Amino acid sequence: MATTAKTARKPNAAFMKPLTPDATLAAVIGPEAVPRTEVTKKIWDYIKKHDLQDPKNRRNINADDKLRPLFGKEQVSMFELTKLVNAHLK
């Protein structure tokens, strides 16, 4: 019988590739190239720091002056967030 060695799970290379934010996104997370995972983390840090989650429905994020151009509307759900942000990465 062959035994299979359990290997540590490696993150997907596409998620770890540093991407450069455009000017709209850079206004929120900074201009340096970072992996997608880090972009999402920085946006959530910004949202929490400025208390932008909707108090009635915590799944919704209210846009402030910096996030409005990024979202294109006043409020987005956290499920839309990644799709909207990915459009601003190159």
Automatic annotation (TrEMBL):
It comes from the Bacteria. Residues 14-90 form the DM2 domain. The keyword Ribosomal protein does not apply. It holds the Pfam family SWIB. Gene3D superfamilies: SWIB/MDM2 domain (1.10.245.10). GO terms for molecular function: isomerase activity. SMART domains: SWIB. Keywords: Isomerase. CDD domains: SWIB-MDM2_like. This is DNA topoisomerase III.
